[in-house]
Amino acid sequence: MMLQEAEAEKLQLDGVAVHNFRQIKHYWASSDLPNAESNIFSIAYGIWENKPDWDMQLEITFMDENGWKYKMGKDMSQPVQKHKREEDYKGCVAWLISHVKGDMVKQIQECGVKGKYSRTIEFQEAKKQ
Q1: Does the predicted TM-score (pTM) go above 0.90?
Q2: What is the mean pLDDT of residues 29-55?
Q3: Taking the mean position of all CA atoms in its chain, how far away is CA 62?
């Protein structure tokens, strides 16, 4: 999703469209464009806020593509139920996806701090802009 948003924001690095996560990080570390902060905010935070169930949707997509299913019940003896979780709890795949996304945001932030302009983007501050 981050790469799709980078493409939608038309991020460019040295005049070439960004095509991978490493380039997104490099863009944040080195870009002096006035809209760089809003672009990175959109990639790191905005896309996720606009889709509150993004992690569960990615979980369903991942599980469908890989033929995974959850087994239900304390002893795992109940029949397999595709994508069904107990009430509103996230499945372990959704939790893992959420943690990976958090790590990716941290990596972007670290590149900004260590980059040419030594900057970071705060969620609350950026949202007000």
Answers
A1: no
A2: 89
A3: 15
Taking residues 79-96, what's their average pLDDT? 68
Distance CA 119, CA 111 (A): 9
Average the pLDDT over 13-28 and give the result: 93
How many Cβ atoms are within 10 Å of 74's Cβ, its own excluded?
Answer: 6
Q: Is 114 exposed, middle or buried (0-12, 13-18, 19+ CB in 10 A)?
A: exposed
Q: Which residue has the tokens 């939608």?
A: 8
Structural domain count of the chain: 1
Please give the residue range of the domain that contains residue 108.
2-128
Rounded Cα gap, residues 102 and 106, in angstroms? 6
